[in-house]
Amino acid sequence: MDIEFLQTVFFVVAIIFFIIVGVLVLPALIRINRILKRVDSISKDLVGPAKHLAKAAAALQESAIAAGVAYFIKKAHDFMENRTEDHHNQPPRRVL
């Protein structure tokens, strides 16, 4: 057998192998591409609501902080009122 004949046979077998692999892999690649396009469109559809949820969460956080500060100020005010009432209700001190 001639070496050129073996090279030709190997070349033809390699081409046939790659054609078969291409025929088998191409539909899978097409399906994967379609799935990725669907995932991309779904993720684009979810980005809008996610932005709105993030804005709502930020607003809730700000209102919760404001409510906490207001509650603290109210408690401090109540404490100061009770302290002044207690101070006025005490009998006068005797100075010796």
Radius of gyration: 40 Å
Categorize the overall geometry: rod-shaped
What letter string, H or E per element, gives the SSE order?
H
Structural class designation: mainly alpha
Distance between the termini: 131 Å
The total count of strands amounts to 0
Question: What fraction strand?
Answer: under 5%
Largest sheet: none
**Treating each run of at least 4 consecutive H or I residues as one helix, how many helices?**
1
Q: What is the average of the pLDDT values?
A: 84
Low-confidence stretches: none
Q: In which range does the helix fraction lie?
A: over 70%
Question: What would you say this structure looks like, in words?
Answer:
The structure is a single chain. The protein is mainly α. 91% of the residues lie in helices and 0% in strands. The protein is rod-shaped, with a radius of gyration of 40 Å.
How is this fold's topology laid out?
Layout lengths: L2 H87 L7
Task: Pick out its properties.
0% strand, mainly alpha, 96 residues
How would you summarize this macromolecular structure in one to three sentences?
The chain is mainly α.
